Amino acid sequence: MNDDFDETSGPELTADEEALLKELPTLTDVGQARRTFLGQTVACGLGAFALMLLEQEKALAALAASPDALFATAPALENPVRVVLKVNGATKTLEVDSRMVLLDALRERLELTGTKKGCDQGQCGACTVLVDGRRVLSCLTLAATVEGKDVTTVEGLAKGDELHPVQVAFIKYDGFQCGYCTPGQICSAVGMLEEARRGEVSHVTEDLSAPLKQLSDDEIRERMSGNICRCGAYPKIVAAIQEAHSGRETARSWSFVGEEELARVRKEWDDEAV
Amino acid sequence: MRPFKYVRASDPNAATRAVAANPNAKFLAGGTNILDLMKENVERPNELVDLTRLGLNEIKAAGGGVSIGALAKNTDTANHPLIRKSYPLLTQAIVAGASGQLRNMATNGGNLLQRTRCQYFYDTAMPCNKREPGSGCGALEGLNRIHAVFGWSDKCVATYPGDMANALYALEAVVRVKGANGRERTIPVGEFHRLPGDTPEKDNNLAHGELITAIELPKSNFARNSYYLKVRDRASYAFALVAVAAALELDGGTIKQARVVLGGVAHKPWRSAEAEAALSGKPASEESFRRAAEAALKDAKPLAHNAYKIELGKRAVVRALMRASGLA
Amino acid sequence: MPRYIGKEMSRVDGVAKVTGRAKYAAEFQVPNIAYGFIVLGTVAKGTIKTLDTREAERAPGVIRVFTHLNAPKLGPKAATEDSPPRATEERDKSFRALQSDRIFFNGQPVALVVAETYEQARYAARLVKVSYNAEKHATDTETVRGSARLPSQGPPPKPRGNPEEAMKSAPVKVEAEYRIPIEHHNAMEPHAAIAVWQGDKLKVFDKTQEVYGVRTHLASAFGVPEENVSVVSPYVGGAFGSSLRPNYYPALTAMAAREIKRPVKVVYTRTQMFTGHGYRPYTIQKVALGADKTGKLISMIHEAVHNTSSFEEFSDNTTGFTRQVYACPNLYAPTKIADTDLNTPTWMRAPGAVSGMFALECAMDELAYALKIDPLELRLINYAETDPESGRPFSSKALRECYRLGAEKFGWKERKMEPRSMRDGRLLVGWGTATGIWGAFQMPATARITFKADGTAHVVSATSDIGPGTYTVVTMIAAEYLGLTPDRVQFELGNTKFPRAPAQGGSWTTASVGSAVHGAALAVGARLLALANREESSPLKGANAADVEMLDGRLRLKADPSKSVSISDVMRRNNLAEVVETFEAKPSPERRKYATMAHGAQFVEVKIDPDLGTVRVARAIEVTACGKIINPKASHSQEIGGVVWGIGMALQEATEIDHRYGRIMNPNLQHYHVPVNADVHEVETLFVEEDDSVVNPLGVKGMGELGMVGIPAAIANAVFHATGRRVRELPITPDKLL
Question: A94 near A109, Cβ under 8 Å?
Fold first, then answer.
């Protein structure tokens, strides 16, 4: 299992991306290896995206409450539970309503909105995070129960500016469209690859007694079936995870029909018509 | 979700005492079903006793068989070398259920206790005798494509939705429980869940405050010839329309002993003594399996929208036995 | 040679999405926010008899409980206030929450509880007690089918030729009825809004496909000028039509925020999504096809009936494309609607087209078997060289190429006609095909480019990116025509502070917004040319705007690139830090002379377990003729999405209603099945590009809908081929194949 790209075996670029790379002097100048190309090109975009969102929020953060705003008379929490946990390496202390699930603690209290609420019922996988390294659903995990545990969310996968290999592969293969299920897919994939490394079996594993080696695409499909993607990016999600897992590239499954081919079929039916 | 007191149990005895003392208290283990139902206001405990720090998660050889801790995760159970080697049927059943994430959270005890997925049970605006005794059964004359064909009553036609218990029943596992008084008892898996009868609100025969501590698997002669088949509306992450846990002990080409348990067809895992009798001493052949399948579904009683489960059940039994015997 | 257009590009918003930094509506951090939780009604029709909110109001953390008794009126009298509900006002018949005691559908909002925390609001919502005077309801389209009528809007469908007579005379005929259940979009992101008032100015973060539509809706609801309302929606977690029109929750959220004078956030639960917006209607279709013995269609009669609500007409024009897909002299294809006591349906991916083509393309398959002609051959025999409806030529149509190339790629000639004749071990193999069709639409759209002297550009337009890759494709177009590398272009969307763009729907975004950006880029070039030519020494003297292009910081003559000026020099000499151009692109009048359509041919292979009835779509090939492809990487993703949606529609999806209660019984993802990863296998796309200078300056046609249109029929046809069983009622679940 190749969990970590080395400098030479990074994701292969398509011809178009190679061409694009050549045209990006800022990147070639600093001599970056190709592996970080994808992350970096879009990181330029990210700067702008993050900036414009930050701008929105900065303006909001300064908003003072209206003097006649209504508040509940007794807003204190019922059944408060104090929880100390680690989130993406940082220790957090929270006092939560016993009813609060980890998902809402992340999104509403810790400003970690990367973890998504899709169904809130354990039926979609969008809220997947890693707790002590294992993928779980944060919507069905009471915040109170993660006392002392180590939670990793999608925000905690990259090392600084360096994206996790699964993140890079998702971009490379276009393993998402709207992006909403994506953090859950990625956390799930990271946890799943670890499960595979431990030799855990799945519903499609034929031989339960044999040690599990490489995951087939069918294994990945089954193991990722707890993460629904309504945009339907599944084949590309599988390709991305396969490469992060084995280094194996999935061939592109689209093509333009060339002029020659078009001319040939057009001639064929003209001939038939005669 | 109703406000509730959250209590972290320090040991099993304290946990059972805490729950026994409060009729509205419940245990919390993996949380994968109870929290969903609490959000839907179907479950309304005012106290949750968190078991997740109690241990009770050991999987070990015991008495010729294997004892699995009630709080061991489904994933760890399915993948434990003892289970994969000697009880592959259980591994198959576990990994046929839910998703990787849910199996990482769900415990074995909790899996046994998961409640029906009947739509009327989930919707508090609808009648449901299981949720609200006396309110009626919405599914009896409503949408019942996914409901029971065995053992239902006019009070309830819901099914038990789990996979793991079907395999446990086929393996004749025993559930070890501990009461608030510290007394332990064992319940065979086949007697753990109940038929709805006039009290569909009772899913199983646990008393309030009784805690599942372990599931004990007897020595099995089925490791070579077993198969868990699950038929569902999509390829994964869906509940069974029909499931079959099939296990055979073969002597050459002859069936010494057979176990056939159907899932998704009744309020509990549905073991077919008829099918097992029809197989015993017979050659392992498609013909025998067909006769067993006919016997297994002979007494099924369909509702308006689930008659297909009878034909599907027969075919699933045949297929599962074919796979178990190595003929397919 | 284009530098970017037509080449693969990874999404510019990719890093934001894979790192969780992309912000969706509910995720903006707003201080002092309160949480609203919606209470849904439990009867299908009638009036609210009693409302008891006392216990809810007393619950800890609760700030206010809103019901129709204390909620302010939201704008002009809504249709849903009248009893009987049919509105006299033409303006807005859409449902607005908490405006009267009338109940129009089960799952209608009857209260909104606002509390300090989400947990408190959710719990208190359960404490609101409501009783009803229930009235007899009708939610089953089958039972109201007899009352179906033509929609009041739009011209009545005119028969072409004499379809009835021609049908009688046809030597070969097929006739059958097809049914599609209600389906829900089930985008992954639940609909959500955050509303913040500052005086009479309102800012709303919303999940929407059209920020301007929400702005108009809210301005009308609160009687404030449109410019007082700002709507922000930078990321949308899928929508598929469910956010095309404003749903009831943004106004409800803003109302609560105004009343309690605090920001309020309301997020639908998954269950609330099933009645909180529209859905693909329940559709019954009767199709009769008559042909001569060579397979030529003589007559087509395709009648659709689908449901709408009791208070609002909606039609997805189910049979619209039937008129344009095959050459046939006699045709009648009306779509009728029937009232039900359900919420109003709406557009859902490939609206109308995928429903209508499911029926028509299955019927074509049935006709092929009646004629003993290969199903693909039958489609070629009836190929429409010109638009059968208007007689106009197509602006471009490479559908025949799609059929041929797709068949080749798929290996179609190996197909044995006889059902149940192909196997893979014990699995039955079936091959099916169908035609895809969609309009090449363009809507008016405006974009603004700020081209800066430092060689970067800021591009804005109030469009949306619900997933197709609009951020990326617009960045590519801007980069191409501004002669910049994409990293020097920053594109923003989803905000009413940007120029107006149409809703993201109908697969028209790239044609519309892309054309506006293209126009604005050319305008920047033209302005720079004018500036350059103020100088005597300009080497571009005498050149027109059309003669020049921008590339790598220079403005140059296309015909002689050696003649060029440095753009930054020109700007510096004119003391300009930036050049700003706004451009509105409108459909060209030239389009009216043509029929403008996108086409595709779709081939699928299914493998079916003959004992268990489980169907696997083992491979699918999408062959697509939709003009120019800008970003094949994202376009392929769109086609894959179309296949996945087709799989869902064909095999899994159905919203189930218990008609005794008129209530949706599977409003969740455990019982409303959508495809999971294990359901999807090989999907391949072939792009047959068309040169089309008529549709729009970029020559693009939409593809988000197109890729889905033929798939359900192709799957159903493949299921027939595999099993010999013709399932005319979707979804084809295992029980239907036993």
Answer: yes
- Mean pLDDT in residue range A163-177: 97
DSSP calls for C476-534: HHHHHHHT--GGGEEEE-SBTTSPP---S-TT-HIIIIIHHHHHHHHHHHHHHHHHHTT
Spatial contact of C704 and C466, defined as CB atoms under 8 Å apart: no
Q: Per-residue DSSP letters for C627-642? A: B--S-HHHHHHHHHHH
Q: What CA–CA distance (Å, rounded) separates B172 from C115?
A: 51
d(CA C721, CA C431): 6
Chain segment B155-185, per-residue pLDDT in tens: 999 999 999 999 999 999 999 999 988 899 9
Residue type, A93: T
* Residues β-bridged to residue C578: C452
Distance (Å, whole) CA B258 – CA B275: 8
Q: Which of B39, B76, B104, B239 to mutate to test the interface with A (most CBs of A within 10 A)?
A: B104
Query: Which residue type occupies C162?
Result: N
Could you confirm whether C210 is annotated as catalytic?
no
Which residue out of B33, B40, B123 would a mutagenesis test of the C interface target, given it has the greatest number of C Cβ atoms within 10 Å? B123
- Distance, in Å, from the CA atom of A86 to the CA atom of A107, rounded to the nearest integer, reads 15
Chain centroid to CA C473:
18
Give C38's pLDDT tier (boundaries 50, 70, 90): very high
Contact (CB<8Å) B319/C611: yes
| ipTM of the complex in this document | 0.98
- For residue B81, cis peptide bond before it (omega within 30 degrees of 0): no
Nearest to C31 by CA among A250, B33, A57, A120: A57
> Per-residue pLDDT for C454 more than 90?
yes
pLDDT grade, residue A58 (50/70/90)?
confident
Of A213, A215, A193, A201, the residue nearest B81 (C-alpha): A201
- Give pTM, 2 decimals: 0.95
Which pLDDT belongs to residue C545? 94
Return d(Cα A25, Cα A20) in angstroms, integer. 10
A225 and B99: CB-CB below 8 Å? yes
The torsion angles phi and psi of C320, rounded to 5 degrees, stand at: -55, -50
pLDDT at position A76 is 72
Q: Decide if B32 and A78 are in contact by the 8 Å CB cutoff.
A: no
pLDDT, tens digit, 9 for 90 and up, residues B200-248? 999 999 999 999 999 999 999 999 999 999 999 999 999 999 999 999 9
Contact criterion met (CB below 8 Å) for B291 and B259: no
Average pLDDT in the C146-161 region? 92
A·B CB contacts under 8 A: 113
Which pLDDT band holds residue C1 (cuts at 50, 70, 90)? confident
The mean predicted confidence, pLDDT, of chain A is 84
Neighbours of B34 (CB within 10 A): 22
Residue A92: the pLDDT is 97
**Cross-strand bridge partners of residue C302:** C287
3-state helix, strand, coil in chain A (%, to 5): 45, 10, 45
In the prediction, which pLDDT does A74 show? 66
